[in-house]
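Example S7 (structure tokens).
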């Protein structure tokens, strides 16, 4: 059995909190680092959503289904 995604997410959050709390860095530095990580993660998530939309739309077209128009430019 693969580890549930909720457990993976909790472990990640706990690990990040542990590292932040034990880094010895001031909170404003940790906050800046976490913000940078968040922005990068959001960018990657948006890229994945665009890719998934494209793959799904191509699949629907191959099945003779007219997929709804999704403007990937609107995905942030």
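Recovered sequence:
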């Amino acid at each position: 059995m693969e580890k549930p995604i909720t457990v993976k997410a909790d472990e990640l959050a706990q690990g990040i909190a542990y590292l932040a709390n034990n880094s010895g860095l001031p909170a404003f530095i940790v906050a800046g680092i976490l913000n940078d990580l968040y922005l990068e993660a959001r960018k990657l998530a948006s890229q994945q959503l665009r890719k998934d939309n494209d793959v799904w739309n191509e699949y629907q077209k191959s099945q003779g289904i007219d997929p709804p128009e999704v403007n990937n430019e609107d995905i942030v």
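Notes on this example. Residues 50 and 71 are 9 Å apart (CA to CA).
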